[in-house]
Amino acid sequence: MKSKNLYKEQTIHHYKFRRKPNRSIGGDVGIYIFLGICSLMMLFPLFWAVCNSLKPLDEVLKNPPTILPKHPTTDNFSDLFVTLSQGWVPLSRYVWNTVFITAVGTFGHVIIASMAAYVLAKYRFPGGQLFFRVAVIALMFNGYVTGIPNYLILCKLHMVDTYWALILPAIGGSLGLFLMKQFMDGFPMSLVEAAKIDGASELLIFFKLVMPNVKPAWLTISIFSIQNLWNNAQIQYIYTESKKMLRYALDQVAALGVIARQGQQNAVIVLTMSVPIIFFIFSQSQIMETMATSGLKD
């Protein structure tokens, strides 16, 4: 569409003619050195976890510990899968529950938050600003504060011990609405009006024009949603063993506290953090763009 191409030209023009920072070469070198040290400090825990998961048991229990494994092995992961397969609920069931809840919850959160943000950012109606302020205030409360109200509401809706007990709260999260609304404030309303003149419907404008141009924003809330759902045990909402998630099964292995399973516990840590990290690696450029522009307006 012409409107989509016009928006891309405006974005290129903005980044092409923005001011360059007035810094010396020495200042740039100092900044890069400082950022390099900070990045190493943040990457070291991940590197340490991966190395520990590849160590045999004698190296895991060695004192003082070593960073790199002398005899790397994948026995910890194979032993973990054997331990999980010995339960009466197969490992594939835990994996299916986790993938289904994560996929549906993330998709629903992205669509609902994007639609609500689009209306709040581009249309004026009574109570719109009040609704957005309430959503911002909701960011102050974590899951421990809202746990009991959520449980009571889900009981009234007869959703306890169902997949919806985890999917529905994830869809209604306020963080995605906040990020999408701040990002869509910078989307030109003139492009929406031009598309309407061309005869496009509201749904066509939203899915064909708006969503492709706010891709960095919905990729950002996708990684947040995946991280929350993939690592969500929430055993207080689901009682049936066959409906529980992979994180719950992994936590049961890690909670045994047996010395012989220290290597399996290290493998649990790597598996728990692997999926969010992999998704972040493939979408990090878009996420950084969202964080840089979420508070800016035209």
UniProtKB/TrEMBL annotation:
Major subcellular site: membrane
Residue ranges annotated for the ABC transmembrane type-1 domain, each copy included: 95-288
Entry-linked InterPro entries: MetI-like, MetI-like_sf
Residue stretches spanning the membrane: 29-50, 94-118, 130-151, 163-180, 267-287
Keywords attached to this entry: Cell membrane, Membrane, Transmembrane, Transmembrane helix, Transport
Record's subcellular location: Cell membrane
Biological process terms in GO annotation: transmembrane transport
Leader peptide range in chain numbering: none
Membrane topology label: Multi-pass membrane protein
Family: Belongs to the binding-protein-dependent transport system permease family.
Protein name: ABC-type glycerol-3-phosphate transport system, permease component
